[in-house]
Amino acid sequence: MKNASLYIDLAFCLVFLPLMIFAFPVERWWGTYPLFFGAFVGWLYVTYFLYKYFIVPRMFHGRRKRVGALAVAAVSLFVTFLFSSYEISSPFYHTYRLPEVVPYPMWGVRQNQQAVWLHYIVVAIFCVAVGMLTEAYRQRLAREEVEYERNKAELALYKAQINPHFLFNTLNTLYGLLITHSDKTEATLERFINLTKYIYNNANRDFIPLAEEVEYIGQYIALQALRLNDFADVSFVHEVESDTLPVPPMLLITFVENAFKYGVSSNEPCFIRIRLRQQGGTLRFETENSVFERPSRKSARTGIENCRRRLSLLYPDRHRLEVGADADGVFRLRLELQTSVS
């Protein structure tokens, strides 16, 4: 579409208008009235560019520009009227006329006027049609750009909400280890620093390689495992074909965090199973965990619900997310993501 306007101009000036001229009686003026013919054809080209690049574009803008465009259109109508009013039997062309004994038919004058207005109207209608299509395309691009910027702002907001959620939960874990003087505090702090670097390094990135997200999930699980006891059974299985597959950062980790928040207990048997499989452009992510606390609405909004919105913005028709607890008290989450359009 970048050179579409140039192609339209060339097609009109070199193909459409010459064919239109020679399809009507205008070409007969060339041998008899060459000056009039040349001036009129030149005026048709002027009319085309005047309508296409001045009159029509200003009709879609403010009142002042619209009034200016209408004024120029009125001037063009007046000039066309002068062309249509020109007498073919003008004395300037008397050398080309038939002898006076042969009366000049009046229908010739009417035919001349009709041809002038017909060519003008066809050129004007063509320009208006092209202008309206161009304006519709421009408005569509503008709407898409506004929608893109809005979605981008929403994604930034969701990521800003998710990152503090993770930080606060991890800081609570560190606080618990500190007050109990656990020997795991140093290792936990080191992992926390690494995870914090990951967050800030990817804060402004829309997508990251899948391998980085998998590594981040593994470190997060290892960090959470430091505070768990023998009652917890945690597993993370992943099968990845392409380490460079682009995925949104801080998306899958929200589901993992949710499993640890509501699926572990310090005095009852509990389990968390996390599975990730990537094959081609399809990514499947599943979590299963026991439930010891029902998530509140507020927590859902800042956790899984944020991920729902991010998925709807990034993959509107290419994802499926199923979340819910079974009758046996097991919370299951399944995400299927088509990262590329097939």
Rounded to an integer, what's the Rg over CA atoms? Answer: 37 Å
What is the N-to-C succession of helices and strands? Answer: HHHHHHEHEEHEEHHEE
**Share in β-strands:** 5-15%
> Kindly, what is the distance between the CA atoms of the first and last residues, rounded to a whole number of angstroms?
24 Å
Report on this structure.
This protein has 342 residues and is of the alpha+beta class. 61% of the residues lie in helices and 14% in strands. It has 10 helices and 7 strands. It has helices at 4-23, 29-32, 34-58, 63-85, 106-179, 185-201, 210-225, 252-263, 297-302, 304-314, and strands at 208-209, 232-240, 246-247, 270-279, 282-290, 319-325, 330-338. It has a 5-stranded mixed sheet with strand order 2-4-5-7-6, with helices on one face. A two-stranded antiparallel sheet has the order 1-3. A hairpin with a 4-residue loop joins strand 6 and strand 7. Helix 6 (185-201) runs antiparallel to helix 7 (210-225) and helix 7 runs parallel beside helix 8. Mean pLDDT is 77; it is low at 90-109.
Give a nutshell description of this structure:
The chain is of the alpha+beta class.
Jot down its keywords:
alpha+beta; rod-shaped; single chain; two-stranded antiparallel ribbon; 10 helices; 342 residues; 61% helix; 5-stranded mixed β-sheet
Provide the fold topology.
Elements: H1 4-23, H2 29-32, H3 34-58, H4 63-85, H5 106-179, H6 185-201, E1 208-209, H7 210-225, E2 232-240, E3 246-247, H8 252-263, E4 270-279, E5 282-290, H9 297-302, H10 304-314, E6 319-325, E7 330-338
Parallel strand pairs: 2-4
Antiparallel strand pairs: 1-3, 4-5, 5-7, 6-7
Helix pairs in contact: 3-4, 3-5, 4-5, 5-6, 5-10, 6-7, 7-8
